[in-house]
Amino acid sequence: MKTQTDSKLIFQYQNGDEKALSTLINRHKKDLFTFIYYKLMDEDLANDIFQDTFIKVIVTLKEGRYKEENKFILWAKRIAHNLIIDHFRLQSKNIKISETSFENEEFSIFDIIKEPDGNIEDMLIENQINEDLVKMLVLLPENQQEVIKLRYFDGLSFKEIADHTETSINTTLGRVRYALINLRKIMEEHKIVLTK
């Protein structure tokens, strides 16, 4: 049996064939999920964004607003990418400025992540900063990755992180401190500049 094109499946789905949608999703789900996961490095969050992406895809197809012939996966990835940006933007509103509770800390690299003012260029730069940040986090030990994500992306307090990780507040503070130091080293080694 000849494999049907994405465009043909979309046409069939828009004309009432629900199975065509299942075929379309199954064809692209691994590629799309991998794309999302490597931007977030968090399986639960990637699953949420993946589901939200397909809800948007289905609504757009149902309303007949899909116009991009033979570019379905690129279009779906663009929807996912925009949802990821929205997620980081929401998280960045919760980031506390000046996470510098240690004597030797001159600055925190998270100080420069600020809520965008609506300027598209600033939003693109902020997205690049967040992408760089996610890439750098992967290079940290797992326990440091965890505390940074909980603190800066999930907005938990140090006490909440200590409870969540079943460690003392001192251990949590230490992990955050070493994570920030390590992130700074990674920035220097890879010549990553997180500024606007």
UniProtKB/TrEMBL annotation:
NCBIfam families per UniProt: sigma70-ECF
InterPro entries, per the entry: RNA_pol_sigma-70-like, RNA_pol_sigma-70_dom, RNA_pol_sigma70_r2, RNA_pol_sigma70_r4_t2, RNA_pol_sigma_r2, RNA_pol_sigma_r3/r4-like, WH-like_DNA-bd_sf
A GO molecular-function descriptor: DNA binding
Residue ranges of domain RNA polymerase sigma factor 70 region 4 type in the record: 132-171
Domain of life: Bacteria
Record's keyword terms, sorted: DNA-binding, Sigma factor, Transcription, Transcription regulation
The name this protein goes by in its record: Sigma-70 family RNA polymerase sigma factor
Segments forming domain RNA polymerase sigma-70 region: 24-92
GO biological process, one term: DNA-templated transcription initiation
Family label: Belongs to the sigma-70 factor family. ECF subfamily.
Coiled-coil intervals: none
Keyword Electron transport: no
